[in-house]
Design a protein that fits this description.
Elements lengths: L3 H14 L4 E7 L10 H8 L4 E7 L2 E6 L3 E6 L4 E7 L20 E8 L14 E7 L5 E6 H5 L2 H4 L3 E2 L7 H9 L6 H4 L6 E2 L3 H11 L12 H20 L37 H5 L13 E5 L2 E5 L6
Parallel strand pairs: 9-10
Antiparallel strand pairs: 1-6, 2-3, 3-4, 4-8, 5-7, 6-7, 11-12
Helix pairs in contact: 1-8, 7-8
Length: 314
């Protein structure tokens, strides 16, 4: 499932590519994704609306439209959004990612008229499309009044976003204080407490902080909490900079994979040697600068896989 860095990459792309554009049409071959409205009513209510802006809470996408309406999209397991020009041109020497198999499961298309159109090169009533590829068809699309979207049960239940400015160290400490007897690896995945962190980044954050996933909160002292808070910020921001992790189906709006999978330290590295330069090597009497080389382990926590180095994490 796309997590905070993947969704933020999509949000940033959409804000650059479609803000100010007007929806001229919509197509879907899987209307079950659209919740609370028939396809005909959904289509009628979005046509001729201008796209005002795109924002995010945790893993959820909100596309604000003119007239006080908002499109709420949850990508679920395999969904991703592609923005294509009506007259697609691939520059010489560049790969056409749209042709990759993972980008071929298109079930919904928004047709857009650009707010800043180029000289007319076609007779179509649109300049670009947003195409929703979703191989497993688990995604969700909701259209409602902007104010009502905020009141949806699943949105109200979300905790503070992991990169919200209000998510301070003090706020993090308050969250942990209420869950002292809970493994830290569980808390990081609880969207009602901190939204945006999923299975990939849980493992990477805990590795960065040097903390085992099953360690109880009450056993993590002040310096450890500070280190963990810093690790959340560091890992998520680095993943955004590298445009997310394409571990499976995730792609950006150009259809291209992210790059953070190249920087993963423990996620799905089970059975391989830990390549970190850590104090574990020093404790074994080795010279500074040597790699840890401890075998990374895959465990289970909260019904999900978790990956860790038993030497680097305590």
């Amino acid at each position: 499932m796309p997590e905070l860095p993947e969704v933020q990459t999509i949000i940033s792309d959409l804000n650059k590519k479609i803000v100010g554009d007007t929806i001229t049409d919509f197509w879907s071959n899987w209307p079950k994704t659209i919740k609370g409205k028939s396809l005909a009513i959904f289509k009628k209510e979005i046509i001729d609306r201008k796209i005002i802006g795109i924002r995010r809470i945790g893993k959820n996408i909100f596309i604000d439209l003119s007239g006080g309406k908002t499109l709420y999209i949850h990508l679920k397991m395999t969904g991703h959004l592609l923005v294509k020009s009506a007259k697609l041109k691939v520059k010489s020497g560049k790969k056409d990612y749209f042709q990759d198999k993972v980008n071929q499961y298109i079930h919904h298309v928004w047709y857009l008229k650009s707010h800043n159109p180029k000289p007319e090169t076609h007779s179509l009533n649109y300049d670009k499309t947003i195409e929703f590829s979703d191989v497993r068809k688990f995604a969700k699309i909701v259209l409602d009044d902007t104010q009502k979207i905020k009141e949806l049960k699943e949105i109200k239940a979300l905790g503070i976003d992991a990169l919200d400015k209000k998510f301070t160290l003090e706020r993090f400490e308050d969250i942990l204080e209420k869950r002292k007897n809970t493994p830290i690896g569980i808390i990081l995945m609880e969207q009602e407490r901190i939204s945006g962190i999923g299975n990939i980044y849980r493992s990477e954050i805990l590795f960065e902080a040097g903390i085992l996933p099953e360690r109880l909160v009450k056993d993590i002292k002040g310096p450890g909490i500070k280190k963990l808070y810093s690790a959340i910020q560091k890992v998520l921001k680095k993943a955004i900079k590298l445009r997310g992790t394409s571990d499976s189906d995730y792609r950006d709006t150009a259809g291209a994979p992210g790059n953070f999978q190249k920087a993963l330290k423990v996620y799905k590295k089970n059975g391989k040697k830990c390549r970190a330069y850590r104090t574990a090597a020093l404790k074994r009497g080795e010279q500074p600068g040597q790699k840890c080389d401890t075998i990374i382990i895959r465990g289970k926590l909260g019904q999900r896989s978790v990956f860790f180095c038993p030497a680097c994490q305590k």
